[in-house]
Amino acid sequence: MNKKIQKAINDQIQAEFESAHAYLAMSLLCNDKSLPGCAHWLKSQWQEETGHALKLVEHVHSRGGSVTLKNITVEQPKWTNVEGLFKTVLRHEQAITISINKLYELALAEKDYPLQILLQWFINEQVEEEGSVQAILDRIALAGEAGASLLFLDRQLGERA
Ligand code: OFO
After folding, report:
1. How far is the CA of 149 from the centre of ligand 1 (A)?
2. pLDDT above 90: residue 75
3. Average pLDDT over residues 67-74
4. What is the SS3 string spanning 61-76?
């Protein structure tokens, strides 16, 4: 693995751990707002993002490369409402999609075939993640988030496997 690729994957590992941390912070905020379902959904997302970071770590290690972690710098989430929180999640996922696509473009330019194959999984994952967050926002747009609607949404989000 060349140094340019190794650095780019290290940057993506950092981004995945930062995503994980941001989602855990949002989960804790939802706990404080008595929304256990939202908290559960976001905590599951924390686990997924950690898994993504570790998948990239394994890839680097299995190819004899090296991973260096930096400090995590993530802003504390601000509370407006559930819609505001999930809009932040969607924007975050869209930014991660851009960084995954850039990494894929580098893998193409550098003819790094193993990385291209690995990133196809990540590209699909981003489609799935953006889709599931958009579906939550669509539900809120349809039913609002007051009273019973909010309790129903929270219960549904709490059912995430
Ligand atoms: Fe790692 O997929 Fe979301 O950010």
Report:
1. 28
2. no
3. 93
4. HHCCCCCCCCCCCCCC
> How many independent structural domains does the chain possess?
1
112 C-beta closer than 6 A to ligand 1 = no
The pair of structure tokens assigned to 89 is: 């999640």
Q: What is the mean pLDDT of residues 62-77?
A: 94
The CB of 18 under 6 Å from ligand 1? The reply is no
- How big, in percent rounded to 5, are the helix, strand and coil portions of the chain? 80, 0, 20
Which range of residues forms the domain containing residue 104? 3-157
DSSP of 66-102, one letter per residue? Answer: ---------PPPPPS-HHHHHHHHHHHHHHHHHHHHH
* Per-residue confidence band for 7, with pLDDT thresholds at 50, 70 and 90: very high
Pick the closest to residue 136 from 161, 153, 118 (CA basis): 153
Average pLDDT for the chain:
96
Pick the atom of ligand 1 nearest to 52's CA.
Answer: 1
Residue with CA closest to ligand 1 atom 1: 49
Q: Residue 89 belongs to a domain with what CATH number? A: 1.20.1260.10
- Tokens 């998948």 appear where? 55
